[in-house]
Amino acid sequence: MAVETLKGTQDFDPKKSIEMNKVMDTIKKNFELYGFRPFDTPLIEYMETLTMKYEEDSEIVEEIFNVKDRGNRELGLRYDLTTPLCRYVASKPQLKKPFRRYHIAKVFRDGPLKKGRMREFYQCDGDVIGQEGQEIEGELLSLFYTTYKNLGIDVVLELNNNKILRGSLLEFGANEEDLSSYILSIDKLKKIQKEGVLKEIEEKNLDTQICSNAIDLLSSKSIEILKESSSNELLLEGVNELSTLVTLLDFQKVPYRLNFSLSRGLDIYTGNIWESYDLSNSVTSSLGAGGRYDKVIGEYMALAKGNKEVTELVPAVGISFGLVPMMSVLESNETSIQKEGLTTTLIVPLSQDCVSKAFKIADKFRNENINTEMFYGYSMKKAFKYCDYLGVENIVILGEKDIEKNAYVLKNLKSKEETIFSL
Known about the structure:
By secondary structure, this protein is α+β, with helices and mostly antiparallel strands. The protein folds into two domains: about 15-330, 2-Layer Sandwich (BirA Bifunctional Protein, domain 2), CATH 3.30.930; about 345-420, Rossmann fold (3-Layer(aba) Sandwich), CATH 3.40.50.800. It has 16 helices and 16 strands. The strands form three sheets. It has an eight-stranded mixed sheet with strand order 1-5-6-11-10-9-7-8. Strands 13-12-14-15-16 form a five-stranded mixed sheet, sandwiched between helices. The longest helix is centred in the first third of the chain and has 20 residues, at about 15-35. The mean pLDDT is about 90.
């Protein structure tokens, strides 16, 4: 019998769980401060639901964990939190909008394993369905930035608009069907520089001059310069949307930087997109991302009705926190919780005869919402070692002499201050 975890999965010991809960509790608190409501969906969905939007041989379909029930129905484990949300909205035509929901849960992908890529991991999403305009985007990014700040993570938001990417290539004569292939390479501009991108474009047998011109345009230092240098209608639409969002962020003092070559989910995101980055560079990958995806739910609703053409657009915009890289930043910044437990007060009866009175003391603290634990080792030495291990702040040692005096002492282990209470 195997006594180890499956590759791509992991145990969360108490210390790790405490740290993760602190992060998730902060995120939940801020979501609710901004009017978001908790939401959950089944871990298991019909396979048809999970694959509806994708070709049979697509990467995401190949990574779905397949299962069958007793009725031999084709089922699968959810691989993200957006697809179940689409299914939910499509099944609720009378859903009151705008619909604000947050969802923190595990998802599963049976893909290639490598560092930072797991089979089982948490996603942490907040979405607003049925709300157009950049105003809601500005509010979402305020929530995004405030949450990182509350956790002690110094971030900057990187912004772009997918219409700018598409429009820059159309500006110089690219074919619509080649846009995705061009953009996948341009997205690597920071890593492999212009020469590397053009080499990749040449290997794809695409026009390197079109790509070179588009990169030069996307290298504009400001929105104003980009706007003055362009005539493509789609690009200018994206510029106006991004400009409106930037004005809102300036007002809210949310730090950002523009990256006109940034790309995200070309088949998903329809407008402004963003990623968050750690300014200390202790983690170089993004700490979260999101954007506007106005077509996805409409496509899902159309496919559910057996239609290929989208007949209804459902405005949608969302953010997603990267819990794993956020935890890495907290650990490197030494701001994570270095505790094995949540107990703040330890009650130590020195014999079995003292236990009943110790129960009463413990009840008193618990009634005051103080995390209190009983220690039955009947040994002061063992009790103090246990306090060190858990990170306990206060200790009560109760012996027969204390009971005779009808009093006990609460000792703070950091300040060494002692307080006497009556039994």
